[in-house]
Amino acid sequence: AGNRAGGGPLLTNYALTLLVVLFLQSRSPPVLPSVRHLHHLAGPQDRAQVGGWDCSFPRDAAELEPSGNSQSTVSLLAEFFSYFGTLDLGGLLLSPLEGRALPRPSPETLGGLRPGPLTLQDPFELSHNVAANVTPRTVSRFVRCCRDAARLCRGPEFQQKSRRGRPWGVMRLLQPGPTGNSGNSEGKFLIPVPLPSPGGSGGIQHREVCAAVGFVLRDVLGCGCEPEG
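That's the STPAP polymerase sequence above. Prediction below.
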């Protein structure tokens, strides 16, 4: 539910990125620190204000403590969908500044922040709701898609592994890449993506699914796609 132009009723890429940041901040232990914590860690040389807003954070990443969270990427992906599929977004203030979802305060205490069906506060320009353009229909669709994705993540297709216990199919894209040239004899790193057979009356739908998967792999991820011989 994102758009690149930044207008219209959809989530912008910036808003989607902040949703991922907020989710990672809210883990226990957190994967990312809150922006408030970064303010506290900033030294005198790191102090910065932009338009009157505190934009201070340590410039040297070595000053940050490593995260103690040891969850896998696959586990975090499943939790992301579950997290946003269960939140009452209409009654919350999503705050990357504090690193968590807060009960939404009354409008007069929000310092000019305009609440909406999804209230996602910019972590630096605190009066800016980066999802102010999002409609109730978009929020409902986003939550519904997250619930559907969370249910799929609990299913056997998501959990399935090969007989050697390795991740299969698209899940291998979420694993660290191979070092060296560990593919086949031609140097390719092959990822089998099993799709259902086009039998019965679902031929048109099957072609649409294959086309969508091919578009993501080729045009978005830059992979090559070859039908299994």
